[in-house]
Amino acid sequence: MNLKIYRLDQTVLSIENNAAQFLNGLTSNTVDRPHNAFLDVHGKIIATFDQLKIAADQYLIVLQSSFVDALLKHIERFVKLSKVVVKREDYKVYFDLNGKQAANAGEFCIPQKAGQIVLSKTDIKSTVSNEEFILFRLQNNIPVHGQDYQNEMLLNVSEQDYVSFTKGCFLGQELVSKVHNRSKPSWKLIVKYEDDSSQPERQSMTSKIIDPNTQRVFGFAFVKND
């Protein structure tokens, strides 16, 4: 079997002790979906993450390592009030591009738009280069927090992947719902060819690489949502 594995710079946090209620009150999506986000009161992203329920009252959340400290600071007072237990786990995080890696004992898989994320406490050999993974992400519209977007308003990044409009209140919900129901996001993050882009879009374009099918440069860009 030709496995395509890429090691991610991500950290796994465990949330226990009334975890579902804690997540439901603070995050933008339902806890049964693979993707979720912590927002500030203005609907801007603190951290997007993948999530998985692994026990009756335990969830794992997986986020870019560079945003862990900011997230822990963001939820600190809510953790104290709710008495949930949040701790770092020693899982290594991999992206399985073709979704063929089977989960062994003690491992977990989280489905993605294409492929899956694999959480393991053992080393799995990476078989995919940085350039190959960027190409895969562009081909499957998988932007990365910290690389392709920062503290954007959530709906500028995605109107479907990270939010539920029926789950009820969450931090930042008022503005997110107002934009969704009364207007539309000002910007949207898309995959676009550089030679079809404006000068500002070219300057801010991220994850740029040559498309082997067209020999044209493409990447992620925020465009006006006209």
3D structure, described in words:
The protein has a single domain (5-224), classed as 2-Layer Sandwich (Gyrase A, domain 2). Helices cover 23% and strands 33% of the residues. It has helices at 19-26, 68-82, 130-139, 154-157, 173-182, 199-204, and strands at residues 5-7, 10-16, 35-39, 45-55, 58-64, 85-89, 92-96, 108-111, 116-120, 187-193, 206-211, 216-224. The protein has a five-stranded antiparallel sheet with strand order 3-4-5-2-6, covered by helices on one side. Strands 1-7-9-8 form a four-stranded antiparallel sheet, with no helix packed on it. Strands 10-12-11 form a three-stranded antiparallel sheet. A hairpin with a 2-residue loop joins strand 4 and strand 5. 31% of the residues are buried. The model has no long low-confidence stretch (mean pLDDT 95).
